[in-house]
Each structure stands twice: as C-alpha cells, then as structure tokens.
Amino acid sequence: MKKLQYERPVITRLNTGVTNKFGTKTAFTPVTHVDGNEVKTLIANYGSPLFVISEQTIRKTFKDANRAFTTRYPKVQFAWSYKTNYINAVCNVFHQEGSWAEVVSGFEYHKALNNDVPGSKIIFNGPDKTEADLRLAIENNSLIHIDHLDELYLIKELAVEMNKKPRVAIRVNMDTGVYPIWDRFGFNYENGQAWDAINKIMLNDKMELVGLHSHIGTFMLSPNAYGIAASKLSDLALGIKKKYKKNIQYLDLGGGFASKNTLKGSYLQGVDTSPTFDQYAEAISTAILNAGFLEEELPLLILESGRSLIDEAGSLLGSVISNKRLSDGRRATIMDFGVNILFTSFWYDHKISPAQDFSQYTEDAVLYGPLCMNIDVIRENITLPPLKRDDHVVVHTVGAYNMTQWMQFIAMRPAVVMIDMDEKPHIIRRRETLSTIESVEMMPEYLKKFKL
Amino acid sequence: MNIKKNIALSDSGFVFDPSSGDSFSTNPIGLEIIKLMKNGKSADEIKKLITSSYMIDDNSFEKDLYDFVNMLQKLKIAEGEEKK
Ligand SMILES: Cc1ncc(COP(=O)(O)O)c(C=O)c1O
After folding, report:
1. Mutate to test the interface with A, among B10, B29, B32 (most CBs of A within 10 A)
2. What percent of chain A has pLDDT over 90?
3. B8 touches chain A (CB under 8 A)
4. Inter-chain residue contact A13 with B75, CB threshold 8 Å
5. Domain end point (choices A260, A281, A303)
6. Which pLDDT tens digit goes with each residue over A209-263?
C-alpha cells in the first residue's frame, strides 16, 4: 500500500470576531517555482540559502518606471544606484536598458568603469570622495555631485592643477514636508547654503555647474514630497539662469521611491500602500513643467532609483533547520538564513511563502535565523503552514541592499543566481568558501606553530 | 494523557470544548491523533499506526507527536499523565 503524504499535526485556537493580527490566510499560496525554475532544483544545484534574481522582473520594472516618466516629461535619464545592488550582472542589465551609473565611492566608481560605463555617464555622489577618486572623475569628465565645501575647494584646486574644467552639480537638501530632513548631505535650500555654494562655483569659473541634485530620503511614501523637491530645484535653476545667464542642464531627483515591501509596524501591506511610478512621475513632471522653464530649455530629468527598481526582482530561497516550541507556546521555526544576509528584515516584514504544497492549516510562528544571537529574528510573527526540516521557503522582494550590505558571519555568504529571459539560471556570484575569506588573512611567522 | 471527555470533534477538524466555549482548528493528521487518543491509544500505538500509513519516519513523528500533545495540554484539550 502506498503511504500517505505526511503533514505535521497542528492545532490552533480560533478567535471568533477578532481580526487576526497575524494576517489573513489567503496570503498563502505555495511558490514552488521562480521564473520557471523549481525552488527544490535551484537549491539542489546551487545550495541553500540562495539569492535569485529575475532578469524578466528587472527589465519589466525598469520599463514600467521609464514609461511612467517618459510619457510625462520629454527628457529622462535613469542612473543605476550601484549601492543598491552592485553585482556586475545586475548592473549590466540596467546598463543594457539605458541606465547610466550612480556611485558613491571609489570602489563603486571603478566597478562602473570595469562594466564599461563611459566616465561621462557616471554620476559621483556621496561625502567620501578621496583626492585620487576626484582626479580620476575629473579626468573622465564624470558628473561630480558636490556634498560639502571641503570638497568644493578641493575640486577647485584640482581643476587648476589639472587644467580641466570639472563638470559638477551640488547636492541640495531641503524641507519637503517629510521628516527628518536628510540635511547632513549637501547644501541646505532654505537657509541659503545652496545659493552660497552656487555662487562660489559660478563666480570662480574653474568648474562648470551642469546640474542640481537632491535625494530626499529612502522609501519615501509621499509623491508630493518629490513635487516639492522638484519645485525647489527648478527654482534654483531658474534663479541661476536669471543671475548668471546660465542654463542648468539637468535636475537629478535622486532615488527613494518605495518598493512593494511592508515596513515593520505598518498595518497595511506595502503592495497596497506604496505609490506607483506613475504617481511619483506625475508629481515630479508637473512641478518641473510648471516651474517656468522655456520649452527648449527644460532640463534633463535624472533619476537614481534603487530599491524600487530591483527589490521585486530578488528572492531569497532558504530551508528549515528545525522547529521548536517557545516557553509561551508559540512555534519557533529556525531557518538557514539569518539577518546577516537578509539585512532588510530589520526594516521590513518580508513576505515569505512556503515552496511546497500544503493543506489550508496554518500556525503562528516566529522565524529565526541560524545565528547564535538573540537579534537574529527574520519575522517576529508570521502565519505559515506547518513546515518541517528541509522544507523550503521563498522570501520575496529582497533585491535591494541585501546583496551589498550582507555580512559574512559564522558561515559563508550564499551564491546569487540570475534567471535569464529564457528562464535559464546563471550563477552571477559564487557561494563564498573558506579560501575566499582566508585569502585576505595573514599569519605572522611566530604564530604559525603550536603544540596542544 | 487523555483527551477531555466532553471535547467535541467534527470531521472537518473543528474541535470544540463545551466547558470553556473555546473552539480550535486542527489538520487531518491532528484530528486523527486526537481521535486515536480519545479511543485510549497510547503514544507508542499512535506512533505505530501513523508511521505505517504515512510517509514519515519514527523519530520525526515522535518529535511532532510530543509537540502536538504538549499543545493539546496547553490548550486544555488534553489532561493528565502520559499513558505508558
Ligand atoms: C544619492 C543617492 N541616490 C540614490 C539612492 C538610491 O535610493 P533608493 O534605493 O531609495 O531608490 C541613494 C540611496 O540611499 C542615494 O544615497
């Protein structure tokens, strides 16, 4: 006789009339495949845990975003925010779609160069550009976004020494009605710092002021804030035109559009509350188009969107290590991935789906990672069907920041696989090995020998 | 360990405790175990029965059964000492 499929016995109390704070059951459908590839097979071939990137989703999301802006504004340019995910294969999908590169360090700058992005299409942001970085950026005619006065003076000196006219923009911070204001970056609009920096550049004539930049924050749920930012940058650009008879070539509104994730502590799901690209595009385009530019002098609109373009394309596949019962009766499930590789679990209640079929019975559980630390909590409460050792799950919407902010701790960082347009998987970053880590360690001679 | 006498079971996995008014939901395997316990089967007997008809090994099932029975006790569906 053929034996029946087993499922762990579960029993839960029914709370009639009270809404279940753990969410609704309909959220659970098994996700057995990612872009046509069986989760089980991917894990068998590449190990568990495993990050998977969907090229289809990247290209589709990019096209959606691009369409939202280009149907509303005549000149639009995206620049891929390297820090969000700088695995070269990911960057190159964006570059193939037409994105320039947006970098914030020498390391990222060289990555962009190695990916064959022309220097003139690299936007160099951030407070920490070394003198060597700046020399290279000036040499390559890159767009240097000045963050502070020390940098402004240094670029001026280098311009004289190198006898080149660097193309620069200033980063402007401002009150857009969203708090806290990110006023540690760039020059403030309201208190006149921005004008002060503009005057220093314009009067000196050693640099060319080509653009104005702002990045008002990240996971900004208010399209209106972008409308305000676009108005304030436009106002500066028009002021520069009036005062110096100089056209500003571009306004860079930065990144920060929300992805479809659910912020911790928020009652509603991110999929339902995050604004669409159309809403952001409408706010920004309207503000610039209504600012008073002559039609032929409308500046190029640059966007440095990160998480909203890549989050959805990334999934983390993982496996159950063990189940436990906590002292208060709650179920605890221990996964083989922790907060060290799923950094965004500090910000989001990630949606997690079982990767195999199950009945409609569910249990409330805490999901823990495998680290020997109390902070290693993936989800404080989640309703899932009974999972047993070696069952798999898919964590959704993890493409942004995890593959750059992950920490190597206790074990190796996992492999990353990209599934191409024909649903064929490719390794784009190998699983780390002991020698990956030890290749940068050195052993002083006198510590080489010991007797135990 | 015994299932309390007055606990009512439905075939759909609905469990009702008339003494407290609490209701519970269990999956088919849970229901089967509760029924076996109600019929006075010991843990060992339940283990034999389940592992012979389901795709599960002894050790894994023993662990799950132990956990499940603990939950039954916590939810006051079962009471008393473990049957030897
Ligand atoms: C200057 C700049 N541009 C773009 C981004 C990308 O932001 P996001 O991923 O929120 O779109 C960041 C990230 O913080 C940034 O600092």
Report:
1. B29
2. 83
3. no
4. yes
5. A303
6. 999 999 999 999 999 999 999 999 999 999 999 999 999 999 999 999 999 999 8
For chain B, the structural domain boundaries read 2-79
Determine the distance separating the centroid of ligand 1 and the alpha carbon of A294, expressed in angstroms. 30
Residues in A closer than 8 angstroms to B75, CB to CB, are 11, 13
Domain boundary among A262, A282, A303: A303
Q: What pLDDT digit, counting tens, does each position of A353-394 carry?
A: 999 988 778 888 999 999 988 899 999 999 888 899 999 999
Domain count, chain A: 2
Q: Does B69 touch chain A (CB under 8 A)?
A: no
Q: What letter does residue B13 receive in the DSSP assignment?
A: S
Residues A133 and A260 reside in one and the same domain: yes
Q: Is A237 exposed, middle or buried (0-12, 13-18, 19+ CB in 10 A)?
A: buried
| Per-position b or e across B34-46, b if 16+ CB within 10 A of its CB | bebbeeebebeeb
- Same-domain pairing of A406 and A328: yes
Q: At the top level of CATH, which class does the domain B2-79 belong to?
A: mainly alpha
pTM beyond 0.95 = no
Residues A161 and A248 in one domain: yes
Query: Sign of the C-alpha dihedral, residues A320, A325, A327, A328?
Result: positive
A185 and A239 together in one domain: yes
Domain span including residue A182:
126-303
Of the pLDDT bands very low, low, confident and very high (cuts 50, 70, 90), residue A181 is confident
Residue A357: give its domain's CATH number: 2.40.37.10
